Amino acid sequence: MPATQQGRPAVWVVLCLCAIGVGRAQSDELARKSHEAKQLMAAGRFVEAIPLYQELGRALPSNTGLRLNLRLAYHMTGRQAEAVPEFERVLKSDPGNGPALISLGVALLELNQPAKAVAPLEKVVAAQPSHAEARGCSRMRFYRWAATGRPPPSSGH
What would the mean pLDDT of 78-95 be, rounded to a whole number? Predict the structure, then answer.
């Protein structure tokens, strides 16, 4: 397994397995590709899932589930720079999308843009204070990171 896939929180795999909701109007081929992409994500084969999700996204541009899964595949393969604008597109159509907010914040942190990461992570903390991932994102840790440009000491999460 490439280093970009190791050490990612298990939550990303769960997020990747969001229901895609293939509608009746879609062709059998789109449904097959959607199922195949979902299976690839579940198996941790993110690089192979990307072209399928790209094709599905072109065919069904308003399906935020497909768009989010593509962005998560980018994220899981270390392609944060490509993931960020795509998470932002998901959030334009669904501003309260928790997985997209968390993913955007984490991607921005990994791109050493902590000041930009604060807003989406704050939204998660405000909307889901009991969410395990949100609880791990203490606001002060991110403010310190944004202010100093240095990550806070690891809390073991």
Answer: 87
**Mind giving me the DSSP string for 81-106?**
HHHHHHHHHHHHH-TT-HHHHHHHHH
CATH value at residue 101: 1.25.40.10
Q: Is the dihedral of CA 54, 57, 58, 64 positive or negative?
A: negative
- Classify residue 153: in a domain, yes or no: no
Q: What are the CA-CA distances from residue 99 to residues 13, 59, 94, 115, 124 (Å)?
A: 11, 23, 11, 19, 9
Judge whether 154 lies within some domain: no
Range of the domain at 40: 3-148
Q: Report how far residue 14's alpha carbon sits from residue 44's, in angstroms, rounded to the nearest whole number.
A: 11
Is pLDDT above 60 for 134?
no
pLDDT at residue 83 tops 60? yes
Chain mean pLDDT for the chain: 75
